[in-house]
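Service request form, structural biology core

Requester: graduate student, group of Dr. S.
Request type: structure prediction, single chain
Budget code: on file
Notes: please return the result as structure tokens.

Sequence provided:
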Amino acid sequence: MNLNPSEKIKEFRLKRGYSQEQLAEISKISIRTIQRMEKGETLPKGDSLKKIAKALETTTENLLDNDKKDDLGYLALISLSGITYLIHPFLGLLLPVLLWSFRKNKIVNADLIGRKVINFQINWQLLFFLYFMIVITRGSFYIPYNNSMTEWINMVNTMNISPFFKITIRIFYFSNLIITLFNLIRIRKEKLPRYFISFPFL
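Core staff response, request fulfilled:
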């Protein structure tokens, strides 16, 4: 059943477990305005719409678009797809992009979460390989981009570098997996993912 913006605000608010008072406090919008929006007496727009969307951890498009469907499983799949970097680094970018592009206009929050996942994977790969190039190979432009997880571990084990750098490169490598699993749990709880370092390329 299609919902109008007033009904969608109430639906998202209840999903988050917020009372009208809590939503008003988080969004910095008066309780009277929240009540009027949910009753359909006034339409959310402009800055108020942005504040409501941010407080409800969604986008303004999701509050206005009646055609998008809820699919928590697909959102979790987009998030989880990033760990395919363990098979091949390029897969950690390619699969999230494909999943995002297929359903970004059909599922609530698919566009937002897809962009967050893709931006994180781009940032992580740039930082990881920059660290590897500068610190591990001491300025060499050698980047073993085609290596799988097993090949990475074997290569680091055989490199003539200090134990400290061997530990840090492993921590860096598996940080992607840890952050992905952390955000998978958030998505399953119907919360938006949080990436600590993520310059927005998309």
